[in-house]
From TrEMBL:
It comes from the Bacteria. One of its GO terms (molecular function) is sequence-specific DNA binding. GO terms for cellular component: cytosol. This is AsnC family transcriptional regulator. InterPro entries: Dimeric_a/b-barrel, Tscrpt_reg_AsnC/Lrp_C. Residues 6-76 form the Transcription regulator AsnC/Lrp ligand binding domain.
Amino acid sequence: MITAIVLIQVSAESITDAAQAIVDIDGVTEVHSCAGDADLIAMVKVSEHEELAALIPGRISKVPGVLNTDTHIAFRSYSKKDTEAAFAIGLDS
C-alpha cells in the first residue's frame, strides 16, 4: 500500500466544500483543515503509483476551489497504536 500526504491550497470560500468533495474520492482516507501554507491535508492510500498519477492531478486538483497541490509519498509509517500493539503481544495469556 502506498501512502501519500497531499498538501492542498484552496480558495478561502471553498475550504469546507472542497474538503468534503476530496474525502469522497476513492483512495482518500481522510482530510484535515489546518493552519499554515496548506489549507487542507489529505491522506491518500492506493496500491500502485499509477493510481496516484490519476488521483491527484485527475481528481483532487479538479475539485472546485483547489488552487494547488503538493504531494509527499511516505516511505514508512509509524504510529503509537502500532507500537503499543507490538509491545502487547502475548500479554493476554
